[in-house]
Design brief:
single chain, alpha/beta, Rossmann fold, 8-stranded mixed beta sheet, 6-stranded parallel beta sheet, about 15% strand
């Protein structure tokens, strides 16, 4: 198969204006992974040179235009069906990652290898690059044993045992691990991570972008209220429960003045649309598909309520951060990490209780004063603690420790990206002149 590498700025092969970071992301294309995109932009702004190995997708096009970034794409594997399907997908992705990472190493040094988890499959490659002089960062988005269990109808203990084993191998090779919440922190330390080298970097939105968003009342489609669901539509996200809650809101509780927008796509997109149609929800539910962040933020700037129906105890849903940033109260199931980040900003139902979720939604939409109080609490917590402007400093501190660049990066810009010192300024000049190398 034809290599799909997209390299930029190779006019001066002798120039190395900053430390070199290679990122491997498998689960989704880099163009749709908002967390990795923010990390890359932070690194570039701080003067690092970055390459990313990722599956190909139209959404990667914007990333290819970023000065200082090399996008190394491989043909996207087909959507897996069953355990053997995942084994094939991961084997193909591992082979491409090995090929591209070694080619990058031949062309020049790799100071930091960052592997985005899941899946926990890259530890052999990480050991190899570690022997060749690279530091290893594990960027843990989800925990594979928990994620696998949620996606199965019945427990498959042998598979869970293998996933735990892979998790331990990954933590043994890591020089540093970053994760999204305290649940993951505890689990990764249990799996062998050094407590002093596991850092929680939460996945809040960039405030500069939130503040630039504009509301659009036409998105309510002549309804009195707008309720949004935002994200990738994976099986673990339980769109089926969310839609059945909407059906109960409309059919049993009689709240027909609410428009529900399900923003995003993924493996369950068509299933979700089919379920909505079979429940007769077309007048109240829309599926705009995958839209730009600016469009998502326009919806949230207009929304009266947000919702989530995930049952993932270990995950801090990005959508919850975004709802809170816009002062939008939310309803969800009562899970450890969701309540941890959203305390006071949301209403909760017993996990799996669809009717309870629907009742909380209707009660909240009927109480504007309570919604306003929740919105204020959420907005203030994001602004003061959870926004990416705060989290980016922790991420860059990890990278700076590993590369000996402590103090190289300054604060954060209005857009939420790290601002560089004098060295970073010279680096940006080099980027403009095309003096980058991978």
């Amino acid at each position: 198969m034809r290599l799909l590498a997209r390299r930029q700025g190779l006019s001066d092969p002798g120039a190395r204006a900053g430390a070199q970071v290679l990122i491997i992301v498998e689960n989704v294309p880099v163009g749709t992974d908002r967390r990795v995109r923010k990390e890359i932009q932070n690194l570039l702004e701080a003067g690092y040179q970055v390459a990313v190995v990722t599956r190909s997708a139209p959404e990667n096009a914007e990333c290819r235009r970023w000065p200082g970034l090399t996008v190394l794409e491989y043909p996207s594997p087909r959507e897996p069906r069953g355990v053997l399907g995942y084994v094939w997908e991961y084997a193909v992705s591992f082979a491409w990652a090995a090929l591209y990472s070694m080619a990058a190493r031949v062309r020049g040094r790799i100071d930091v290898l960052q592997v985005v988890q899941p899946p926990d499959i890259y530890f052999p490659l990480a050991w190899l690059h570690k022997v060749l002089g690279a530091a290893v960062v594990v960027d843990q988005h989800d925990l594979m044993p928990e994620l696998f269990a949620l996606r199965q109808e019945a427990a498959v203990r042998p598979v869970t045992s293998v996933l735990r084993w892979l998790e331990r191998r990954t933590q043994r090779v890591a020089d540093e691990t970053i994760c999204t919440n305290d649940y993951q922190n505890a689990r990764l330390v249990e799996a062998g991570g050094d407590p002093d080298r596991v850092t929680v970097v939460r996945n809040g939105p960039v405030l500069g972008r939130v503040q630039a968003a504009l509301s659009d009342e036409s998105l309510k489609d002549d309804h009195a209220f707008l309720c949004c669901w935002v994200g990738l539509m994976g099986r673990q996200d339980r769109l089926d429960l969310a839609l059945r809650a909407v059906d109960h809101v409309v059919s049993e509780l009689g709240a027909k003045e609410i428009k529900f927008a399900f923003l995003g796509d993924g493996e369950c997109f068509e299933e979700a649309k089919a379920l909505s149609s079979s429940l007769g929800l077309a007048p109240w539910v829309s599926f705009p598909g995958w839209v730009t962040e600016s469009t998502v933020f326009s919806y949230l700037a207009t929304a009266d309520l947000g919702m989530d129906a995930s049952l993932q105890e270990d995950v801090s849903p990005v959508k919850i951060f975004e709802y809170m940033a816009f002062g939008v109260p939310f309803v969800s199931f009562d899970l450890q990490e969701t309540r941890s980040i959203g305390a006071g900003a949301g209403a909760y139902a017993v996990p799996g209780d669809v009717h309870g979720l629907a009742r909380e939604l209707v009660a909240l939409i009927s109480d504007p004063d309570r919604r306003a109080d929740m919105g204020r609490i959420g907005r203030e917590r994001v602004r003061n603690e959870l926004a990416w402007e705060h989290q980016a400093r922790k991420y860059l501190a990890v990278m700076d420790r590993l590369t000996g660049r402590s103090g190289a990066a300054g604060g954060t810009s209005e857009d939420g990206y790290a601002t560089a010192g004098a060295g970073g300024f010279r680096q940006r000049l080099d980027l403009v002149r095309g003096r980058t190398r991978w």
